[in-house]
Amino acid sequence: MDAIILQTLNGLDKGSAYALIALGLTIIFGTLGVVNFAHGALFMLGAFCAVVFNRLLSLSYITIDPTQTDFLGNPLKVETPYVIGWFGPEAGQAIIDWSVPLSILLVIPVMGLLGLAMERGLIRYFYRRPHADQILVTFGLAIVLQEIVKYFFGANPIPTPAPPAMAGGADVGMLLGFPENAIVYPVWRLFYTFFAAVVIAAVFGFLQFTTFGMVVRAGMADRETVQLLGIDINRRFAVMFAIAAIVAGLAGAMYAPINSPNYHMGMDFLVLSFVVVVVGGMGSLPGAVAAGFLLGILEAYASLDAVKQILPSIDQIIIYIVAIVILLTRPRGLMGRKGVMEE
């Protein structure tokens, strides 16, 4: 039972990442009709925003500390981060320690502007082009972004630690009546699942309860009628592209302590996320989220030793098997809308 609970938590953790990326993909497809193969690169860029923010906070200046000397008795030169000099030792060190959560301050504007630049500078020219053209151009863009990151940051993963207060494990088993230390799960992974739930709820709330969101949903259903009402729906769709980029960036930034950022991490998640979107139903936001968590949990259960003894390596292919079964029985996916990609 404890192994099942641990794998359920692992599934929610993986499913959170799948759901966030798939949510952004579905927003772009549902509003613009564009199959965006560069979305995984946006996830990767969000992770590197966390890396950059940590490095910015670690920038330091050199001072002379008369209380410390070398073996010759000369005062030592000490590197002091600027934030410690500005805010003091305790507050400054706390800001550095919490650089990953605070990187949201960098992720939101950077990814929003990048999303707008992508949509205005490239994507809008492919709205009425075949999906094959969209896939080719966005996949090419993803490779370009990947190589740029590789050039500046190198090919090796960059460890990005979680805040020390959230670096340990939480005794989840105690809350469920198990003996002490029977089920211990990393605190940051629990936080990531909670963070994903908040972001997903915020996106659905924005689309459901704001005037902007209601107009966007109307435009997704009938773009021509909304335009006839004098509403510039294309501008609103461009904003939605930026929001999708922000969601992907936030997912990547908060995932940095779990999976050290590297230049190809976007491609690792891209294929799985497209499988999630297809299983959930192209254009269905609830379907993308539900499929993300469903496939994440199934993948985690397939990693159980008891399962792998019977079906070795099943955890590597379980997502694709489920996708095949669902698409054979429900070609539109779990919650797919009629007419989407059926022409």
UniProtKB/TrEMBL annotation:
<feature type="transmembrane region" description="Helical">
    <location>
        <begin position="42"/>
        <end position="64"/>
    </location>
</feature>
<feature type="transmembrane region" description="Helical">
    <location>
        <begin position="95"/>
        <end position="114"/>
    </location>
</feature>
<dbReference type="Pfam" id="PF02653">
    <property type="entry name" value="BPD_transp_2"/>
</dbReference>
<dbReference type="InterPro" id="IPR052157">
    <property type="entry name" value="BCAA_transport_permease"/>
</dbReference>
<keyword id="KW-0813">Transport</keyword>
<feature type="transmembrane region" description="Helical">
    <location>
        <begin position="270"/>
        <end position="298"/>
    </location>
</feature>
<dbReference type="InterPro" id="IPR001851">
    <property type="entry name" value="ABC_transp_permease"/>
</dbReference>
<feature type="transmembrane region" description="Helical">
    <location>
        <begin position="16"/>
        <end position="35"/>
    </location>
</feature>
<keyword id="KW-1003">Cell membrane</keyword>
<feature type="transmembrane region" description="Helical">
    <location>
        <begin position="190"/>
        <end position="216"/>
    </location>
</feature>
<dbReference type="GO" id="GO:0022857">
    <property type="term" value="F:transmembrane transporter activity"/>
</dbReference>
<feature type="transmembrane region" description="Helical">
    <location>
        <begin position="310"/>
        <end position="329"/>
    </location>
</feature>
<dbReference type="GO" id="GO:0005886">
    <property type="term" value="C:plasma membrane"/>
</dbReference>
<feature type="transmembrane region" description="Helical">
    <location>
        <begin position="135"/>
        <end position="153"/>
    </location>
</feature>
<feature type="transmembrane region" description="Helical">
    <location>
        <begin position="237"/>
        <end position="258"/>
    </location>
</feature>
<keyword id="KW-1133">Transmembrane helix</keyword>
<keyword id="KW-0812">Transmembrane</keyword>
<dbReference type="GO" id="GO:0006865">
    <property type="term" value="P:amino acid transport"/>
</dbReference>
<keyword id="KW-0472">Membrane</keyword>
<comment type="similarity">
    <text>Belongs to the binding-protein-dependent transport system permease family. LivHM subfamily.</text>
</comment>
<protein>
    <submittedName>
        <fullName>Branched-chain amino acid ABC-type transport system, permease component</fullName>
    </submittedName>
</protein>
<keyword id="KW-0029">Amino-acid transport</keyword>
